[in-house]
Amino acid sequence: MSAALDWSAYASYGQGDAYAGIPARGGHYARAVAVCIGNRQCQRTERKGVMCPSFRLTGEAQHSTRGRVEALKAVLNADGTEIDFDSPELAAAMALCVGCKGCKRECPNGVDMALLRTEWLAQRAQKHGLAPRERVFARSTRWLARWPWLGRLIRLRNRLPLAAALGERWLGLAAARRLPEPAAQPFTAPPAPAAETERPRVALLVDSFTRHFEPGNATAAIEVLTAAGYAVDVIAPVADDATPQRALCCGRSLLSNGLIDEARAEAQRLVAALAPAIVAGIPVVGLEPSCLYMLKDEYYSLGLGAEVDKLAKQAFLFEEFVAREHAADRFKLAFGPLAGEKVLVHGHCHQKAYGGMKPLKKALALIPQLDLEIIEAGCCGMAGSFGHEAEHHALSLQMAESELLPALRAAPEATVVADGFSCRQQIHDGVGRHAVHAAVLMRRAMKL
User: Fold this and answer.
1) Angle between helices 393-402 and 421-431 (to 10 degrees)
2) What confidence tens digit (pLDDT) does each residue in 121-140 have?
3) Cβ–Cβ contacts within 10 Å for residue 254, how many?
4) Has the keyword Magnesium been applied to this entry (predicted)?
5) What does the CA dihedral 313, 261, 180, 142 come to, rounded to 10 degrees?
6) Do 166 and 278 form a contact (C-beta atoms < 8 A)?
7) pTM surpassing 0.85?
């Protein structure tokens, strides 16, 4: 097996352990599969944490982390000259994995099923290529940048039921689901602060979804950080970038669809652009959880070298940075009170998986007189492209209805904070509420 991702971190797993159950084939990838030892925490029935959203809903063992491991072990242990990544049983087990990363945090052994599934997708993509729908999901923001008129087509599709029906028939895009509509103008970076400024510098990563769909989130973050005493540099391609006119991207959408080489190329562009900040010890601040945490996790599996270690230590979500700087008495901004305002916070799955919820709560608690509540809910069910897939649309909404949407309906006047782009879309589609990024709420509470 020629792995698409770098699995060398698992090279010593199970060494000398007779109970590791390492599959016969697959090299280091097989060792990563064998991290699961079958204690079945992923198949628990009580509502706790995130893992495993699809098992919670279906109650079927194959739709748990353990069930997917068993399917992977079956193909890695099977006879034959090649590993059968086309196995129907494996495809069925992987079909409802939403990549929540819950198992990486909540499984006692830290099984990373989202990454294991990415390798499976990559093996299939190398053999068969991508279906048209997967190409759309993988490259949508790149196409929007190249052909801005696509935004008009998306808006037209959302308003014409026949167009939506044809999209479901031809591409498998759920006709009942509104596609996210691009902003009238994508984000444009303000002039860079003067190099000689005495303010501490921050490198802001504006991800592709913020840039094209919700540029106001980046503007709000810049205004808050500037008011708090920081000089904000928006990360841009380096001068010798092969495509300097193309905005930077972390590569998340490409990786999620198995396009490892393209994801690696995007990651290399971003790491090159961040190199001066890394050397200078400048914090890197991101807005979208799935993008920012990719720098701290999946970049290791893309084999990008020692730079990833330094980057991972300097990369923070917006609210993580705010909480960290306030604790160090460096965040110089006093917020005005939002007296008695009820705020419900829904955490992105990756925020929960990487311990980002406590900093989010601490950052929002800087706003006086805020009635703040963290919604105890698992995955919202949108999970990037999952909720847009015709065969998964109904299940996506069921995930949301299991905990999240009832909590929102119980507090109809509350402001809703959700940092995840997909989470905000699911909330809008599910209850017709406009959820905001934490940076937007904090800007509203600034003393002007």
Assistant:
1) 90
2) 999 999 999 999 999 999 99
3) 22
4) no
5) 100
6) no
7) yes
